[in-house]
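Customer escalation, tier 2.

The customer says the design service returned an amino acid string that "doesn't look like it belongs to this structure." They asked us to rerun it and document both sides in this ticket. The original structure tokens are below, unchanged.
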């Protein structure tokens, strides 16, 4: 199964045989967006167009296969940036037509969940999934990743990674800010500043997230320091902000597991690379008797292997392929695993 991912700024091409990963080639346009402080859709689309064919060839080379060895093609149909998705879909349709192989248009979020099967084997059913990246923050109940993915909650404003990126910018750290905050926070005190925990009150929705109030609170705090002519304690701000984010993420994920009687939690998406999130999730899962699965960082960020993994899983489940006229769906609901 060849998988193509182009929903944001990574051109990913993965190749799997069943649950065995054969190749995971990624070309990122992240550097072209850095000076804008965020992903510019038109720049991303153009970069996908340029990277697509070379990345397909690199993946085949890495896997030691010819294109003619491919049995089926999976592609992210949504959600994501419309123009970026279109490039991947057009490429996938072209290869499927030229090779006369079936096409599977799949959901990006379900692919983030399914990728863990490449590393840790079959997903327990049901599993709980916390997906946190620059584009999404969702809590999903997953009875069966091929056919039954149920959204429990998501962010009502910024995604978790987006909050990391915005706070990093405020602190003068480069884009994307997550890894820089993570690093700065190691020198700081996570309890130094009591930043707010969004949507954590007794009457708030249990499984939804909000990070824009936190971002504003950090901005106000930093501005007040600057106005007073004082130096901004970057490490303490980074650590306290990070603590507020991961506290809420892990508390809600563990609560969702407990309230739904689910014993396995999976965390995916770029923010899953965060060292404090991984550590606190482990501590809280251990004390709640929940097994934690987090794929290695390269499989957490956007990649083609996750799309190939889900494609292979759909074939194994005996589901029919998509038709050749499927559209890019930038707002594809998470309940639609396969178009
Ligand atoms: O999954 P991903 O590569 O792309 C999207 O689909 O968005 O996630 C990128 C996001 C960025 O916001 C980045 O700042 C964040 O993941 N990120 C991190 C860390 N590494 C990447 N956030 C916190 N800590 C990290 N170590
Ligand atoms: Zn993603």
């Amino acid at each position: 199964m060849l998988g193509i991912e182009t929903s944001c700024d990574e051109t990913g091409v993965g190749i799997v045989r069943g649950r065995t990963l054969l190749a995971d080639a990624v070309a990122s346009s992240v550097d072209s967006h850095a000076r804008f402080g965020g992903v510019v859709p038109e720049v991303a689309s153009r970069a996908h167009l340029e990277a697509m064919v070379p990345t397909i060839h690199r993946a085949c080379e890495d896997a030691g296969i010819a294109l003619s060895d491919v049995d089926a093609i999976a592609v992210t149909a949504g959600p994501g940036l419309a123009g970026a998705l279109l490039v991947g879909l057009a490429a996938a349709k072209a290869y499927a037509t030229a090779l006369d192989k079936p096409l599977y248009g799949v959901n990006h979020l379900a692919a983030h969940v399914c990728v863990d099967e490449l590393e840790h084997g079959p997903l327990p059913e049901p599993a709980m999934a916390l997906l946190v990246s620059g584009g999404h923050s969702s809590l999903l109940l997953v009875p069966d990743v091929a056919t039954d993915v149920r959204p429990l909650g998501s962010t009502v404003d910024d995604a978790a990674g987006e909050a990391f990126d915005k706070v990093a910018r405020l602190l003068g750290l480069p884009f994307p800010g997550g890894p820089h905050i993570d690093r700065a926070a190691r020198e700081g005190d996570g309890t130094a500043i009591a930043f707010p925990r969004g949507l954590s009150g007794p009457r708030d929705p249990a499984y939804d997230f909000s990070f824009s109030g936190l971002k504003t609170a950090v901005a106000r705090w930093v501005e007040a320091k600057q106005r007073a002519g004082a130096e901004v304690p970057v490490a303490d701000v980074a650590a306290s902000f990070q603590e507020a984010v991961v506290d809420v993420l892990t508390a809600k994920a563990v609560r969702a597991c407990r309230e739904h009687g689910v014993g396995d939690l999976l965390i995916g998406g770029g923010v899953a690379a965060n060292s404090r999130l991984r550590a606190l999730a482990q501590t809280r899962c251990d004390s709640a008797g929940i097994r934690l699965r987090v794929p290695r960082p390269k499989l957490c960020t956007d990649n083609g292997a996750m799309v190939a993994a889900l494609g292979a899983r759909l074939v194994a489940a005996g589901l029919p392929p998509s038709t050749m006229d499927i559209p890019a769906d930038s707002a594809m609901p998470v309940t639609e695993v396969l178009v």
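Tier 2 assessment: The sequence is consistent with the input. The pocket of zinc ion (ligand 2) is lined by residues 108, 112, 133, 135, 269, 302 (CB under 6 Å). Residues 107 and 337 are 5 Å apart (CA to CA). Sent an explanation to the customer and offered a walkthrough call.
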